[in-house]
Amino acid sequence: METRKNTLKLQFVTSAKVPSHLKFMAKGVKIPAADVHSVYKDENDQKFYVKFIDETSYNRFCNTVEDQYWFHYEDGSRTPVQLELASRQFKYVRLFNLPPETEEKEIAAALAKFGKIRQHVREKYPADLGYHVFSGIRGVYMEVEKEIPANLYIAHFRARVYYEGLKNKCFFCKAEGHMKVDCPKLASLRSSAETGGQPSYSSVTANLKIATGSAKETASPLLNMTLIPVPAQRTKTKEQAQQEEAGVVPSTSTVQPPVQANPDLALPQAKPAEGQGEEQKEASPIDAIVANDPSAEQTDAETDDETEKCNDGQGEAGGSASDAMIVDGDQQNANDTKQEEAIDREEWRLQQKQQLKRPIAESLSTDSNAGQGKGLLKKKPRGGKGKRGSKGK
After folding, report:
1. 96-135: per-residue pLDDT in tens?
2. What is the DSSP letter of 169?
3. How far apart are CA 346 and CA 100, in angstroms?
4. Sign of torsion, CA 154 157 158 162?
5. How far is CA 154 from CA 109, 112, 228, 284, in A?
6. What is the pLDDT of residue 235?
7. What pLDDT score does 391 carry?
8. Dist. CA 179–CA 184, nearest whole Å
């Protein structure tokens, strides 16, 4: 339905004072009363509407005036007035695929850029069906100023739009007069894909299946790999490497382990650690006398020094024999001689030590016979009984 046919719209600026109807018609526009059908004011947008009796009088007035003219007030001031065509395509727009929770303000926000909305409608099923309830279809009465697309997003939902005069427009080629289902360009792409044509961007976006015969399958060449064994490196000593460089063939002498020390010789006992004296047994009389004898301490110290030197000698002999991979026969004999000499020295030191301890033991036995040694070895009783306890009884 076309509304405001043969109607002229006059709009004042926002800050201007809008006059009354009669003053505006008499002093402002100056339209002959015989050509005017009606004059009214829209309070919503503060605009005047003048409807002519027919199209002839309407065209005659529009051809004699400009798009903008000045309205003069009684105080001598004036304001510009904008003239434009008021006729609009007043249509009923239907919206599908929207949930019932969608509010009218959300619909108005989506359709405001396409025209002026006058009324919202919620369609219902006919009463004769037994369910006179809402169908989910929303309707809008509006003045369509701009073409509305067939699909529109409203509140994150894709709504299907339909109204009278809606032009069929293809979503694929964007051409008017047909829909996507009947698009000739899409049909040609499908036929070329079926016959083995080359794929294109349009065919991919149209979800077309590319013919498998158009692409030739080429087998990738096989790669042959040959594994060559690498010989393991032999570890060589420094002497063997020098002999090979000099061209000398090394001798195959047998490596003999070092001669073990005298197995019958008892090893000295380890000294107790510090702080363990209380847990050990009490010192014997011989140890007490030896501890008080300075000559015995000096002899023991000398014996210990010689023992350490002997052990060092044995360690050097054993280390030289274990480190060398190929030992000469003469060198081996020399080492054996040194070890035997060290063993003889050790036995001689032990004999000297026993001789030093023998007169000390004899003196201890003499003192014990005289009654002197008993006092040294007498222990104190640990019980609570004593002389005082006997007197108390």
Report:
1. 999 999 999 999 999 999 988 888 999 998 888 888 899 9
2. B
3. 114
4. negative
5. 8, 12, 72, 111
6. 63
7. 47
8. 10
Tokens matching residue 124:
């219902």
pLDDT digits (tens, 9 = 90+) for 282-335: 444 455 444 555 544 445 555 555 555 555 555 554 554 445 444 455 666 677
Considering the entire predicted model, what is its pTM?
0.34
Q: Is the dihedral of CA 20, 25, 26, 29 positive or negative?
A: positive
* CA pair distance 133, 155, nearest whole angstrom: 23
DSSP state string for 59-107: HHHHHHS-SEEEEEPTTS-EEEEEEEE--EEEEEEEEES--TT--HHHH
- Between the alpha carbon of residue 27 and those of residues 60, 363, 379, the distances in Å are 19, 161, 148
Sequence-distant (6+) residues with CB within 8 A of 108 are: 117, 120
* C-alpha span between 70 and 301 (Å, rounded): 135
Q: Residue 111: in which H helix or E strand, if any?
A: helix 104-111
